[in-house]
Design goal:
It is a single chain. The protein has one domain: Ribosomal protein L20, C-terminal domain (c-terminal domain of poly(a) binding protein), CATH 1.10.1900.20. By secondary structure, it is mainly α. It has five helices and no strands.
Length: about 110
Protein backbone atom coordinates (compact mmCIF):
# COMPACT_ATOMS: atom_id res chain seq x y z
CA UNK A 1 0.00 0.00 0.00
CA UNK A 2 1.36 3.42 -0.98
CA UNK A 3 1.87 6.03 1.74
CA UNK A 4 1.61 9.58 0.46
CA UNK A 5 3.25 11.22 3.48
CA UNK A 6 0.51 13.74 4.20
CA UNK A 7 1.42 14.27 7.83
CA UNK A 8 5.13 14.70 7.08
CA UNK A 9 4.47 17.10 4.21
CA UNK A 10 2.01 19.13 6.25
CA UNK A 11 4.49 19.38 9.14
CA UNK A 12 7.30 20.46 6.79
CA UNK A 13 5.08 23.00 5.02
CA UNK A 14 3.90 24.47 8.33
CA UNK A 15 7.49 24.85 9.51
CA UNK A 16 8.54 26.65 6.32
CA UNK A 17 5.45 28.89 6.25
CA UNK A 18 5.92 29.79 9.90
CA UNK A 19 9.48 30.96 9.19
CA UNK A 20 8.20 32.99 6.20
CA UNK A 21 5.33 34.59 8.12
CA UNK A 22 6.66 38.16 7.86
CA UNK A 23 7.27 38.17 4.12
CA UNK A 24 5.19 40.10 1.58
CA UNK A 25 2.44 38.65 -0.61
CA UNK A 26 2.79 35.07 -1.91
CA UNK A 27 6.18 34.76 -0.26
CA UNK A 28 4.42 34.21 3.06
CA UNK A 29 1.52 32.09 1.77
CA UNK A 30 2.78 29.89 -1.07
CA UNK A 31 5.06 27.03 -0.04
CA UNK A 32 7.40 27.11 -3.06
CA UNK A 33 7.91 30.88 -2.80
CA UNK A 34 8.36 30.59 0.96
CA UNK A 35 11.09 27.96 0.51
CA UNK A 36 13.02 30.29 -1.80
CA UNK A 37 12.60 33.25 0.52
CA UNK A 38 13.71 31.21 3.53
CA UNK A 39 16.84 30.10 1.68
CA UNK A 40 17.58 33.66 0.64
CA UNK A 41 16.93 34.93 4.15
CA UNK A 42 19.31 32.38 5.64
CA UNK A 43 21.99 33.33 3.10
CA UNK A 44 21.60 37.02 3.95
CA UNK A 45 21.68 36.22 7.68
CA UNK A 46 24.97 34.33 7.26
CA UNK A 47 26.51 37.07 5.13
CA UNK A 48 25.42 39.87 7.42
CA UNK A 49 26.70 38.11 10.54
CA UNK A 50 30.15 38.29 8.91
CA UNK A 51 29.67 41.89 7.74
CA UNK A 52 28.49 43.02 11.18
CA UNK A 53 31.99 42.48 12.58
CA UNK A 54 33.56 44.61 9.82
CA UNK A 55 31.01 47.39 10.14
CA UNK A 56 31.31 47.67 13.91
CA UNK A 57 35.11 47.78 13.76
CA UNK A 58 34.87 50.60 11.19
CA UNK A 59 32.37 52.45 13.41
CA UNK A 60 34.66 52.13 16.43
CA UNK A 61 37.60 53.44 14.38
CA UNK A 62 35.57 56.47 13.24
CA UNK A 63 34.48 57.27 16.79
CA UNK A 64 38.02 56.94 18.17
CA UNK A 65 39.40 59.11 15.35
CA UNK A 66 36.80 61.83 15.94
CA UNK A 67 37.51 61.92 19.67
CA UNK A 68 41.27 61.80 19.09
CA UNK A 69 41.09 64.81 16.76
CA UNK A 70 39.15 66.74 19.42
CA UNK A 71 42.09 66.00 21.75
CA UNK A 72 44.68 67.20 19.22
CA UNK A 73 45.93 63.96 17.69
CA UNK A 74 44.95 61.44 15.04
CA UNK A 75 43.75 57.86 15.24
CA UNK A 76 47.04 56.50 13.95
CA UNK A 77 49.20 58.46 16.40
CA UNK A 78 46.86 57.61 19.28
CA UNK A 79 46.93 53.86 18.61
CA UNK A 80 50.71 53.88 18.21
CA UNK A 81 51.10 55.88 21.42
CA UNK A 82 48.82 53.52 23.35
CA UNK A 83 50.88 50.57 22.13
CA UNK A 84 54.15 52.20 23.23
CA UNK A 85 52.65 53.19 26.59
CA UNK A 86 51.57 49.59 27.19
CA UNK A 87 47.87 50.43 27.42
CA UNK A 88 45.96 47.42 26.11
CA UNK A 89 42.39 48.55 25.53
CA UNK A 90 40.56 47.24 22.50
CA UNK A 91 38.81 49.49 19.99
CA UNK A 92 35.35 48.64 21.33
CA UNK A 93 36.23 49.92 24.81
CA UNK A 94 38.08 52.95 23.44
CA UNK A 95 35.09 53.92 21.29
CA UNK A 96 32.77 53.54 24.28
CA UNK A 97 35.07 55.76 26.36
CA UNK A 98 35.20 58.32 23.56
CA UNK A 99 31.41 58.60 23.59
CA UNK A 100 30.57 58.18 27.30
CA UNK A 101 33.69 59.22 29.25
CA UNK A 102 35.34 62.09 27.42
CA UNK A 103 37.49 63.10 30.39
CA UNK A 104 38.90 59.60 30.71
CA UNK A 105 39.54 59.45 26.97
CA UNK A 106 41.35 62.81 27.14
CA UNK A 107 43.58 61.42 29.91
CA UNK A 108 44.32 58.37 27.75
CA UNK A 109 45.27 60.65 24.87
CA UNK A 110 47.59 62.61 27.14
CA UNK A 111 49.30 59.39 28.32
CA UNK A 112 49.62 58.08 24.77
CA UNK A 113 51.22 61.29 23.50
CA UNK A 114 53.62 61.66 26.45
Amino acid sequence: MRVKGGFTNRRRHKKVLKRASGYYSANSRCYTHAVEMNDRGMAYAYKHRKMKKREFRALWTQRINAAARINGTTYSRLMGGLLKAGITLDRKVLADMAVRDTAGFAALCKNALA
